[in-house]
Structure formats: C-alpha cells, structure tokens
Fold:
Amino acid sequence: MNVKKNFLKGIFEENQLFVALLGLCPALAITTTLENAIGMGMAVFFVLVFANIIVSLIMSNDKLAELVRPVRIPVFIVVIATLVTIVEMVMHAFLIDLYNSLGVFIPLIVVNCMILGRAEAFAAKNKPFDSLIDGAGMAVGYALGIMILGFFREVLGKGTLTIWGSLQVDFGFVFDFLGIEPLELFTSPVGAFMVLGFILAAVVAIAQHRKNKQASSKDVK
Amino acid sequence: MNKRMTSGIVLLVLGLLCGILLAGVNAMTAPVIQERQLEKVNDTLEGFYDMSQYDVEIVDIKGDTIETAYVLDGKDSGTLDAVVYEASAYGYQSDVVLLIAINQDRTIHDYAVVSENETEGLGSDAVTHDFNLAGSSIDDLSEFDGIAGATITSDAVLACFEAVQDRVDEELGG
Structure:
C-alpha cells in the first residue's frame, strides 16, 4: 500500500472527526482553548499509534491470532486501557496543568470509538508498519480537527490564543476595534456544537464542490 | 486443551503483562505526583505563616471531611503554635478543598480554597471570596459570609469549618 496515501487518508477523506464523526465527546468538551486541544491531540496520537502497532503485532502472528480472535475485543481494550493509563500517569506527574484542565477526558480516551475502530478495522488486518502509518495519519487528522475547533472557540470566546503554557497571543485589540466583548457563548457547550456545525457545513460544501467539478469534467469528455 | 480455555489464558497473560508494565510506570510517576501535591500545600502554608520559624508535623486523620492536619511547632519555643487542617466537602459539582489555619488561641488565622471545580463565575468565586472569618474564633462561626448565588458551594465551605470546629480539641486540647 502507498505509504503517503495511507497517511493522508486519515487527514482528508477519512478524517475521523469531520468525516466519520468519531471521538466527538472529548472534541466538544475540551476544545475551550487551543492548548487543551494540542494536549488531547498528543495523548490520542500516542495511544492510537501504539495501540495500532501492538494490535497489529498480535494479529499478524497466525498462531496467536487464532487464539486471540474469540477474545479480540477484550484484548484490544486491555491494550488501549494500559496505554491510556500510562498517558494519564505521565501527564499527572509532568504536565499537571494540562492534566487538571483535561480532567476526566484523559481516562475516557479508552472508550473513544475511533481508537477501537482503527484497531478492529485496520490494525487487525494489516502489517505493523502500515498500521503505524495509519494510526499516525488518523491521529494527526483528529488532532488537527480538534485544534481547528479549539482555535475558533478560544479566539471567539476568550479573545486569546493559548499555544502552550504562557505562550499566548492576545486578540483583544480586534474586539476593542469592533467595540464588543469576546462572545463567551463559544466557550460553553452550545458554542462547541455551533462551531462544529459550521465546520461540518464547510467540509460538506467543499466535498460537494469537488464532486460536482469531477462530474462536470467527465461530462465535457 | 479446550480452545476457549487457551484464549482465556492468553487474555490473562496479556492482562498480567499490562499490569506489570503499569506498576512500573506508577512506581516512576507516583513520587513525582506526591511531591507536586505537597509543594502546592506548602506554597499555601507559606502564605499563612513564615514557615522557616516552624517544624511541621503531618498528622493523617482520614476523617470524612478532614484528611490531614499540619501541626506547626515553633522552632525556638518547641511548643505547639498553630494547626492547619486540610478539609474537603462536596459542593455543587466537585470537591471543595480548603486549608484552614487555626492559631493556638483558637482564632482562625487564615484559610484558602486550594482546589475546586465549581461553576465558573459563581461557585468558583470561592477561591477569592472573603468568608469574613479570619480573626474570629473557630467556636463561633456566626460571622460566616457566603457567596451570593452560590449557596451550595458556600455550604460546602461552611461544612469544612464546622468539621474543623469539631476536631480542633484533638490537637489544641479542650
């Protein structure tokens, strides 16, 4: 399989957040700042890549695969839960602020259907290296997705953009210029749904546009 | 051997391996986590008293509300000068954790909310709110001033003070 195509499919045509609509719960809940989105993206990247590799290693051994097949879902869950717990412990020890703001959504990565979905749909049927590329692509696509959400929600809702720790860009002057306050609505759950809705509309519009273009270019021929 | 049985054993082995791995990671991170927590408490205590003047003795209470007491003995005199209690009670949607410092003469020296996750803009004001108790005696909480609009969070804070009121004899004597 083409490595580049395998990687890019996770970012564009099979983007888990905007196309498959998986992993919405953390995506809506923690994207109040860009920093949270980046932290969540990193955690998901680690878990997804390693879960894909380990699952693929287990399932590519024929003898082991035959034994594991009847209990494969529990096996996948054990692998994913272990990785998530490692992420949680490390974050608690070394990134305490991020740990506090992500809260319960770190352990909830275990039940993120995206990760179990990739293990079952891709890693269990493909070679370890392909699974690694697939996991990395899917995770980057997801991370970019929640970062876009976080970007809009933080800029509109708080008038700032927190990249990491104290590294912060202030957009207060834009709101001063317009003579309005930042729209706090966007930091609330309602705002999360609205931003997601607008982005989904944009994604669908672009996909539709490309489809029409392809169709019309075929007609001309 | 029965195939299902073997599958079960594979799962068991995997679980054990993961457990050992997690134990290893936990052994590495747990001391760091504990150190961080202690550091945070110490920072707050530093705000109450000049800690270089005191020896701190940590008493594990493990009560419903009060978990820990930090007994402060003066370095020069060697007598008990103050006790700081770490108390927590459930508020509107999270545990509200307070550090309450009681002087040897039973007056409330100071207090601080060190951890909460209450409603932004209402209950979360507890961190900066002046509950109007500093300087009054722990035996008389009538001056307590709650937060308008956050009754349940205020009640949790008051519950912490009441628990300290019940407990304070143990450390300071009746």
User: Anything to note?
Assistant: The helical segments of chain B are 3-48, 151-172. The mean pLDDT of chain B is 86.
